[in-house]
Write a structure and sequence with these properties.
single chain; 299 residues; alpha+beta; Alpha-Beta Plaits; four-stranded antiparallel sheet; rod-shaped
Length: 299
């Protein structure tokens, strides 16, 4: 009767179970990415809040349609005027429209007892988010007052603008602080995960040392595997983030206005790089640690 031999799978250098490592790194990178998406959307929201601030340009009376068109063209060409799509955010408000808005808000028809409409035609324009500091707004006001046909320029209370900018800066600093702490925690988590995974390889590493293998020869398969795991984890985390964002956009339509595709793609690419670098460095440190331990310390 022929003897049955059981096939024994040899333990290869660097061949440790990778499912747990990939899952742990993917989860950690997903958390970082989720926080990054929050920062991107918060930044876009703050930009929209700033650009919602309007400057009112009240015009001289009895301007011709040609003069109005000329003023609108001049305003649209100003480098500090916000642009949405390809359209400069400059809106003409006739005195009749202004009267209707005032009556709608106050509930009182002032034209009935005045006998006429004392309001002026005006242009309302939005300013780019990066140009909304109090000093810049005052400079813009002075510039607009020099446009021919403009009678007066008004914008919201400078203190209100300063308050918006201060609060946005505080919120941004807090979010960045949390992001920095989170990155440190995730780095420690990934490092410990890889160290635990390599623990099962410590005797194999010592065996390779005893047969004369160099440190680079021993480290190479671990480093290659760790880098691959980091990239794979980044891909998985990015895919989960993309799926989550698409679901959120279908549930909350307003979130689509806060999208920033360029920054999102940069973030996802960054997750691949972060996963690769942290995995590589963690594996490098762990293998070097086991290379330096004595035989007694391995137990």
């Amino acid at each position: 009767m022929a003897k049955q031999h059981k096939s024994i799978k040899k333990k290869k250098l660097g061949n440790y179970p990778h499912t747990m490592v990939v899952f742990s790194i993917s989860l950690a990178l997903f958390v970082i990415g989720l926080f990054g998406i929050l920062l991107i959307h918060a930044s876009k929201l703050s930009e929209q809040v700033k650009e919602s601030i309007e400057m009112q340009l009240y015009l001289e009376r009895n301007l011709t349609p040609e003069q109005l068109a000329s003023i609108q063209k001049q305003l649209a060409s100003k480098e500090y005027v916000a642009v949405k799509g390809d359209t400069a955010q400059v809106r003409f408000v006739s005195k009749e429209e202004g009267a209707r808005e005032f009556i709608g808000k106050s509930g009182e028809d002032f034209t009935s007892f005045l006998g006429e409409n004392p309001l002026r035609d005006a242009f309302a324009l939005n300013i780019k988010a990066e140009k909304t500091t109090t000093v810049q707004m005052k400079g813009i006001k002075n510039d607009l007052e020099g446009v021919e046909g403009v009678y007066e320029v008004q914008f919201v209370d400078p203190g209100f603008i300063e308050s918006i900018n201060t609060n946005i800066q505080k919120i941004s600093l807090i979010l960045l602080g949390f992001a920095a702490i989170l990155l440190v925690v995730v780095t420690i988590l990934i490092n410990n995960t890889i160290k635990l995974a390599l623990y099962s390889q410590r005797f194999l590493i010592r065996s390779m040392q005893l047969v004369g293998a160099t440190g680079f020869f021993i480290q190479r398969p671990f480093l290659n595997r760790a880098a691959w795991q980091g990239v794979m984890s980044g891909v998985i985390a990015s895919a989960l983030l993309f799926a989550l964002m698409q679901y959120a956009y279908t549930q909350i339509e307003e979130l689509k206005e806060l999208r920033n595709h360029e920054q999102t793609y940069i973030l996802m690419g960054g997750l691949l790089v972060i996963g690769c670098i942290i995995g590589f460095l963690s594996s490098y440190r762990a293998v070097r640690k086991y290379l330096r331990l004595s035989l007694d310390e391995l137990y």
